[in-house]
Design goal:
343 residues; 6-stranded parallel β-sheet; 14 strands; 33% helix; binds NADP nicotinamide-adenine-dinucleotide phosphate
């Protein structure tokens, strides 16, 4: 077997010298190097910002969505949406493990990869089913996990689709667990969506009875969804691109104090300023949304004289898979909702 780099740089075709994620094209030959794992893929969970964009581009037509997805992989050797730059993750069964791979995987293990599809060598032989309402796509195909690639073995106490949908956004509740302190005021923008609901649950748990957790949903429907699970102290819905309206609402709900932590979980552009304006000076804005623009956030905060700490939504933080699956185990209603909506 050929020797591979732990980060997968041996698969980069262009441009030369970059890592697989920023690369435009990677080698998706399904013959493994000595430190790689070959996976028979069952389902792709396309990142929400990416799927929303593809769906829009396809005019909602499923056959067109398939064509766009196949085109992306054919061109890049991976499913990195060229318009959003984002990926998603997958579940599948380990088929082969390289002779020098250091890890506890063996053929037959059912896993979810926790590294982005935007860097994962992938071959799609056939798209079997597209489920636009949950951004999941069943395929016949294979993928490669690099030595450095993180994964979770699928838990035995919940269906694979349920675990996949939650693990897709595992960074968000886990970062929330780390950022929110007892007594904090926390705003979750997009609080009625998948990552938003998990963040609300985790924020409430960490902020405790002396804290205040506020759910800003995108519509009445997702507001009601969060409310039905009793995940926050305050709920409302608003267009998060309207920064001033959001600010006024948060001033009202916090008696002008604003929030210690603002978590952005939306899947659309231009919500940076709503997040920044609602945060106290020295507070934290956590941008989990992949539609966030660094330029808009940095220049926007400067433009309104806000000294806030802005955290880029790293999809990984230690223990993220365990923290996320634990949210579902602890909250029966959340688990049931995830099962009904996303699994
Ligand atoms: P989701 O379930 O689709 O939730 C997105 C939420 O945004 C929805 O609840 C939606 O509300 C809300 N929203 C949309 N437009 C809005 C607006 N104008 N004003 C206020 N709210 C609005 O998505 P998700 O799976 O939780 O993912 C959320 C984001 O995280 C996406 O951008 C995704 O790409 C990103 N992500 C990041 C990582 C990472 O590693 N950082 C990993 C995975 C995903 P309604 O339902 O009411 O319309």
């Amino acid at each position: 077997m050929k020797k591979g780099c732990p980060y997968g740089t041996h698969r980069v075709i262009s441009p030369k010298g970059v890592l697989p994620q920023p690369a435009d094209v990677i080698d998706n030959t399904m013959e493994i190097y000595d430190n790689e794992v070959l996976i028979d893929v069952k389902t792709l969970n396309i990142d929400s910002a990416s799927f929303t964009e593809i769906e829009k581009r396809a005019g909602g037509d499923v056959e067109e969505i398939k064509k766009i997805m196949l085109g992306i992989v054919e061109k890049a050797g991976k499913h990195k949406n060229p318009w959003t730059g984002s990926g998603g993750m997958l579940i599948g069964t380990v088929k082969e493990v390289g002779e020098n791979y250091k890890g506890d995987l063996k053929p037959g293990d059912e896993i979810a990869t926790l590294v982005s599809l935007s860097l994962t060598p992938l071959v799609i032989e056939e798209i079997l089913d597209v489920r636009p309402d949950i951004d999941q796509v069943d395929i016949k195909g294979q993928a490669i996990l690099f030595q450095s690639g993180i994964y979770a073995k699928l838990p035995k106490d919940m269906p694979a689709g349920l675990a996949l949908s939650a693990l897709d956004v595992a960074g968000a509740p886990a970062q929330t667990a780390k950022l929110v302190k007892p007594g904090d005021r926390v705003l979750v923008i997009g609080g009625g969506g998948k990552s938003g609901l998990l963040c609300l649950y985790e924020a409430k748990k960490r902020a405790g009875v002396t804290g205040q957790v506020i759910c800003a949903a995108g519509s009445q429907k997702s507001e009601d969804r969060a409310k039905s699970l009793d995940l926050a102290d305050e709920y409302f819905h608003i267009d998060a691109t309207d920064a001033v309206a959001m600010y006024n609402k948060i001033v009202e709900l916090t008696d002008g104090e604003l929030c210690d932590v603002v978590i952005n979980c939306v899947n659309i552009e231009n919500t940076e300023m709503a997040s920044i304006l609602c945060c106290k000076d020295d507070g934290i804005v956590y941008f989990f949304s992949m539609a966030t623009s660094f330029t808009k956030a940095a220049l926007g905060a400067e433009g309104v004289g806000k000294d806030v700490n802005m955290v880029v939504g790293n999809g990984y933080t230690k223990g993220h898979a365990e923290i996320t699956l634990q949210c579902l185990r602890e909250h029966e209603g959340l688990k049931k909702l995830f099962q009904e909506m996303y699994a």
